[in-house]
Amino acid sequence: MTPELTARKLLSPEREKLILDSLKGGIRTIAELSSRLAVSEATVRRDLQALERQGRVRRVHGGAEPVNGHPGPEPLFAEKASFRAGEKNLIAELALNYIDDNDAIFLDGGSTVLALARRLNTRHNLTIITNSLMAASELMETPHRLILLGGEFRARSRTLVGPLTGRILSSLTIQKAFLGTMGFTLEDGISTSDPNEAYTKELVMRHARKVILLLDSSKLGVPSFAASGEISDIDVIVTDDGVPDKVAAALRKRHIELVTPGS
After folding, report:
1. Is there a contact between 84 and 47 (Cβ–Cβ < 8 Å)?
2. Given 174, 181, 192, 234, which residue has the most CB atoms within 10 angstroms?
3. Closest CA to 232 of 247, 254, 248, 214
4. Is residue 176 helix, strand or coil?
5. pLDDT at residue 74 greater than cutoff 60
């Protein structure tokens, strides 16, 4: 910081600008930002909450990353799972209403979808197709029928992805596909940081009778690197109460069902 800034208490806009400057290099921890700004970690958390509401950063476990159309490194799976965990659990509860006994469903590798997988003991005789090793681990001791897709192992998301998944997918009938995403925009639909993962998601959307997207509202309007399919491929979006009215209206105009805790 400049001497002028260190000589007095920083105002919120000044702190936010410094935070955004720091995040240009990728993920930063709260401790790092606290030291750089010479303020408490509690103050940094409040600033990050404000920047997240503006759609300019994404909080991850213990820190934050930039999201202004230039995504930083993808967080590790454990970091993603801990981010907005309360919202993800609410979304999973809502999504469970779309699953009936005897359904054939697909679960992909998102942390919100994993929260849904943990709730499937309330349903009976499901056929569950998944490319997520995390979901498979949760479900392997259940009486449900479990089918894993083959493919290249992607360590960061703990999924099997890429062209090899097409051989199994082409032979299956999926009634309902539950997908997560790193980013979502009205122009491009869902997107992720890995082209092979985007490819597999697109294949799933083509083979599913109904596509249900699970995402917390911090991902709305935030693109990632590789787009997957079209927004018209999505039938239902299950999210939290943080959806802006304009976005909600645009989704309904596209005949996408929007499900939130308050709807």
Report:
1. no
2. 192
3. 254
4. strand
5. no
